[in-house]
Amino acid sequence: MATLIIYYSQGGTTELVAKTLAKNLRASMVRIHDLKNREGVKNKLFATINAFRESKTDIVPAKVDIIQFDTIIFGTPTWAGNPTPAILTIIDRCNLTGKDVILFATMDSNRGDSNIERLEEKVKMRGARVIESFTIATKNKSPEKLVSDTEAIIEIKDLKMYTR
């Protein structure tokens, strides 16, 4: 089973989790870039509103070819308890029919569960079967701690059984 990780990361913590997953699960990766400026107080406020409203955004790459992959892992930070506009946009552009999906959300606070619930609804509407999901708290954690926490989740949830 070939595995692909599709993720969005603004500050780098979601990317670190995605890279740790890729290394341990021998998965390919695609980082989604949001073309809107999300930096600064004003732009972060609008980003939060966009996440709450589930607004779409311009992204690069605009589409991802997932045909050769059996398992897709989607990862996103949590903004206002929701997935980011960039990850929602790419999910809406994927035909996930027959795909097994693993979802993860990084979070500073404790609102990642609502993010996962919404992601689960979105990927199921696109034809996927959610086989696993998890959240990972990132606030005040060193990169080493994030890597070890991610590796612990891989073991606890036995994620290697879903990949080759």
Structure report:
With 164 residues, this protein is α/β, with parallel strands linked by helices. It has five helices and six strands. Helix 1 links the parallel strand 1 (3-8) and strand 2. Helix 1 crosses helix 5 (143-156). It has helices at 13-25, 41-53, 85-92, 112-125, 143-156; strands at 3-8, 28-34, 59-60, 71-77, 100-107, 129-137.
Structural classification: alpha/beta
Count of discrete alpha- or pi-helical segments spanning 4 or more residues: 5
Mean pLDDT score: 88
Terminal CA distance? 5 Å
**What Rg do the Cα atoms give?**
15 Å
User: Which outline best applies?
Assistant: globular
How big a fraction of the residues is strand? 15-25%
Q: What is the N-to-C order of secondary-structure elements (H for helix, E for strand)?
A: EHEHEEHEHEH
Strand order of the largest sheet: 3-2-1-4-5-6
Largest sheet: 6 strands, mixed
Got a strand count? 6
**Low-confidence parts:** none
Helix content: 25-40%
Please name the defining characteristics of this protein:
164 residues; alpha/beta; six-stranded mixed sheet; 5 helices; 38% helix; globular
